[in-house]
Amino acid sequence: MFMLFAKLLLGLAVGCASAVVPILLAELAPSEKRGQMVTRNELMIVLGQFVAFLSNAILGTIWADDPQIWRWMLVLGIIPALGLMFGTWLVVPESPRWLISTSNTKQALEVLKQVRESEIQAINELEEVEKLVEYARKINEEKVDILTMLLNERWIYRCLLVGIGIALCNQVTGVNSIMFYGTEILRETGFSNQIALMANIANGVKQAFFLNLDLPRCFLRAI
Description:
The protein is mainly alpha-helical. Among the domains are: about 1-90, Growth Hormone, Chain: A (Up-down Bundle); about 95-145. The protein has twelve helices and no strands. The protein has helices at about 1-30, 35-60, 70-75, 80-90, 95-100, 105-115, 120-140, 145-150, 155-170, 175-190, 195-200, 200-220. The chain starts with a helix and ends with a helix.
């Protein structure tokens, strides 16, 4: 029962991070570096998966006779999680848009000054965000159906379809099955535990390799 609850909690955390991090990156990153930031985020995720596969293989090889070693594999994940948690609290700034919506305009300006090259850029962007927040507030007061309004814009509708299509293609490939159960699949085909753990490292290597092939192009795109 505890493991089921833990998996549900992990899924909730990953889902929240997958939704919040790209939005915050898009808000904080300047337009000319947005492609770089999104690519770096994906690269860090892939490298994290590779390190997880590698550490599991090392633990599984050294303590192959210990039936409880899988528990230590799970516990090891606490280390980067704690680093991410404290790093987020201490380093990552608040969302400027959220600060403006809560009447913390001065703090929002300070955040924009940190992530923009000049104070003029920060002030100009602050004014734009203030207009967007005020527009969103008026729409809420008028009780306008935002979803219907957005879908009536053909270009937004096309972007939505493209985004859904990319997400569907990603899931249809079955990549999550390989990432989550790669070791078990190899074990059921006849490999030993040690070989299955070592072979599963190839999943992380493959993802990092193909992402690196696209890095030069992504770093040149503003998006």
